[in-house]
Specification:
alpha+beta; 5-stranded mixed β-sheet; 9 helices; 13% strand
Length: 231
């Protein structure tokens, strides 16, 4: 029996969805555009806000929040059906592209949200697909830096609090983006996503546990788990 996801209305959720056996999910730029169109339609239909994203060659990262429990799952199901159908027709293939279940974790806005956005948008740099995050096309970084309009993107209040106006926010976020992400933050993001727990302070985790009556903190590993470049 599958463990139910940690999910709370209004609380940001970081998720990753991989291709089957880590195989390619995007073969060309038309595939990327098709996925984003499917994501835009499904997010609007389910009332899900998209705060950050990156489409890699064989997986996607999304940072979202929803007004109702179950909305993110319904969105991802709709995206999967629409995108796979379109991709199969375009490339003359059959079958699925995605692992059956995406990984997700709740994110504490006060402590980890900006780190999580930076982690997502720096993914292409870690994977040696770009020297700078903004050199990679399929990412929300262009919206955060004011380089391109992105109608599917909704800035999170924590990002908006970076400055009194658009220019100040973009400048301050660029400075953050150029700083190396703390190694402990990076490992915390990976560990909580891997175990599908609540990434945040003990107070945040206690709140999640109280509301959902389920453990929210990560289990101590018996041995260090391997992390993949570009995850």
């Amino acid at each position: 029996m599958r463990r139910r996801r940690l999910e709370l209305p209004g609380i940001p959720m970081h998720l990753i969805h991989r291709g089957v056996n880590r195989g390619a999910t995007f073969l060309d730029s038309d595939d990327n555009a098709s996925y984003l169109q499917a994501l835009e339609v499904a997010a609007a239909a389910q009332g899900v806000q998209l705060h950050a994203y990156v489409l890699m060659s064989n997986h996607v990262h999304l940072l979202v929040s929803a007004s109702a429990s179950g909305a993110v799952s319904r969105m991802m199901q709709a995206v999967g059906r629409r995108y796979v159908r379109a991709c199969n027709v375009r490339h003359g293939r059959t079958g699925t592209l995605w692992e059956g279940r995406y990984k997700s974790c709740l994110v504490d806005s006060d402590r980890y949200l900006l780190a999580c956005i930076r982690y997502i948008e720096c993914n292409p740099v870690r994977a040696a697909m770009a020297v700078q995050p903004w050199e990679y096309r399929w990412s929300s970084v262009h919206a955060h830096l004011g380089l391109r309009d992105d109608l599917r993107w909704t800035p999170h209040p924590v990002y908006l609090a970076l400055g009194a106006d658009k220019a100040e926010r973009e400048t301050r976020y660029r400075v953050l983006l150029m700083e190396s992400l703390d190694a402990q933050d990076t490992e915390a993001i990976r560990a909580h996503l891997r175990q599908e727990r609540a990434l945040g302070s003990p107070r945040f985790q206690s709140m999640v546990e109280t509301m959902l009556n389920r453990p929210a903190g990560i289990r101590l590993p018996g041995r260090p788990a391997k992390s993949s470049v570009g995850d």
